[in-house]
Design a protein that fits this description.
mainly beta, seven-stranded mixed β-sheet
C-alpha cells in the first residue's frame, strides 16, 4: 500500500471577501509542485460563497466537474441549457467536453453556501457538453459506502471516466472495507467532518489521504464522521 497524506491546514487558501476557498491541489494563484493532483483527480476545492454572490459566466473544456453542496443552495446556469439549484443531499455533474460556459451563484440572499467542487480529467475528450444533478437518500450513506457518481451504475450520476465518487456517514466505532474497482485505481479519502482512520492514517476534519497499490483498505470512524471517497485511475 502506498499513501500520500494531506493535512487540512496545509491546503492553499484564497480569500476574496465574497468567496473563501481551500485548495487540496494547485489551483489559480496557489501552486505547489508536489500537489498537482492525485492520479486523474485534478481539483478539490472547498468553497464558501457569501449570500447572493458567485462566479459569473466562465468557460471550461474537457473536464468532468462534480459539485457536492454541504450547506445552503447553489444556482447553476450554463449555455447548454442546464439550469438548477442544488442543495445538501444532492450532487451535480457537468461534462465540459468541447466547451461550456456556466455560472454558479449562492441562491440565498441571507445564508452562505458551502460546497466541494471536484475536477477529474475525462476518459474521452471533446464529447458533447452535458449537465445532470440528483438527490440521494441519506440512508444510502449510513454506516456504509454509497456511490453517487460512476461510469456504470444506473443509480448514480454518469461520469466520462473510470471514476467513482462515494460518500459515507459513519457512527463512532463503525469499521468498513473499501475495495478498489480496478488494479490501477487509487482512492482519495477526504474527511468532510469528524475523525477517521483510513488505511494507517488518522484523519481529522478536511484532512485527506490518497491510497493506491492495494486491493482494499480499512476505514474506522474514531468519532461520528462524514467521508468522501474519489476513486480514479492513477495513470
Amino acid at each position: 500500500m502506498k499513501t500520500v497524506y494531506h493535512k487540512a491546514e496545509e491546503r492553499g487558501v484564497a480569500e476574496h471577501g465574497w468567496l473563501e476557498s481551500h485548495f487540496s491541489f494547485s489551483f489559480a494563484d496557489y501552486y505547489d509542485p508536489t500537489k498537482m493532483g492525485f492520479g486523474l483527480l485534478r481539483v478539490i476545492n472547498d468553497d464558501i460563497i457569501q449570500p447572493s454572490e458567485g462566479f459569473g459566466m466562465h468557460p471550461h473544456m474537457n473536464m468532468e466537474i462534480v459539485t457536492i453542496p454541504l450547506e445552503g443552495e447553489l444556482k447553476h446556469m450554463d449555455n447548454s441549457g442546464g439550469v438548477g439549484i442544488i442543495t445538501a443531499g444532492e450532487v451535480q455533474i457537468m461534462s465540459a467536453g468541447t466547451g461550456i460556459r456556466h455560472s454558479e451563484f449562492n441562491a440565498s440572499a441571507t445564508t452562505p453556501v458551502k460546497l466541494l467542487q471536484i475536477w477529474v480529467i475525462p476518459q474521452k475528450e471533446d464529447i458533447t457538453p452535458r449537465y445532470d444533478q440528483k438527490r440521494f437518500d441519506p440512508t444510502l450513506f449510513h454506516n456504509t459506502i454509497g456511490t453517487v457518481v460512476a461510469p456504470n451504475d444506473a443509480s448514480a450520476l454518469w461520469i466520462n471516466q473510470n471514476a467513482w465518487f462515494s460518500l459515507s456517514n459513519l457512527d463512532k466505532g463503525t469499521q468498513l472495507t473499501y475495495t478498489m474497482r480496478h488494479a490501477n485505481s487509487g482512492v482519495y479519502c477526504f474527511v468532510i467532518e469528524g475523525e477517521a482512520l483510513a488505511g494507517e492514517v488518522t484523519l481529522t476534519k478536511r484532512d485527506a489521504v490518497g491510497i493506491w497499490d492495494t486491493p482494499s483498505f480499512e476505514i474506522k470512524a474514531n468519532e461520528g464522521s462524514r467521508l468522501l471517497f474519489v476513486e480514479v485511475p492513477m495513470k
